[in-house]
Amino acid sequence: MADRARALTPETLGAWLVKATGAAPSTIAHVRAGFTGVETWCVRPTYRTALVAAGQPVLLWVSGTEADLPAGIYAHGRTAGPAADGVMPVALEPLTDPLPRSELVGHPDLSTMEVLRMPAGSNPSYVTPGQLEALAAMRPELLTV
């Protein structure tokens, strides 16, 4: 049996996208604190986590339907080393203005983001290089970390 083609390779990775639940008290606390003190993020060990290396872009997605914390991208940064045992080392900064899901779903370059197609999918998820470029066009600060 031949190996199935993997959705993610080093060439198709634009940025990691780690997820948090908007209703979780820890997520609310992290957002309020501007992600100060966040040095790691829990991820599911899969072939994807074996691709994590220091210095890769990472985005933080908040999921859910909370009125005061709508789904979308809230932080950006870099990985701080390889993932191990379900933990990804990260350095995150809040986006000055989060990118809500509502701005992404109809966007011609972003509507196919894995997190939009499969919201309950893998953690970490990812965005492609082209999707990261489109996100940076909407929020130039994504290029500064």
Tell me what the structure shows:
- The protein is an alpha+beta fold and 145 residues long.
- The protein has a single domain (15-143), classed as ph1033 like domains (ph1033 like fold, Roll), CATH 3.10.590.10.
- It has 4 helices and 6 strands.
- It has helices spanning 25-32, 101-104, 114-117, 129-138; strands at 15-21, 40-42, 57-66, 69-79, 87-100, 125-127.
- A 6-stranded mixed beta sheet has the order 2-5-4-3-1-6.
- The longest helix is centred in the last third of the chain and has 10 residues, at 129-138.
- The protein is globular.
- The N and C termini lie far apart (42 Å).
Distance between the termini: 42 Å
- What is the spatial order of strands in the main beta sheet? 2-5-4-3-1-6
- Topology-level CATH name: ph1033 like fold
What is the domain tally?
1
Average pLDDT works out at: 92
Major β-sheet annotation: 6 strands, mixed
User: What's the total helix number?
Assistant: 4
Determine the strand fraction and express it as a percent band. 25-35%
CATH class: Alpha Beta
| CATH homologous superfamily placement | ph1033 like domains
**Rg value:** 14 Å
Q: Label the structural class.
A: alpha+beta
Which segments are poorly predicted (pLDDT under 50) over 5 or more consecutive residues? none
Strand runs, count:
6
Order of helices and strands: EHEEEEHHEH
Shape: globular
InterPro entries: PUA-like_sf (IPR015947)
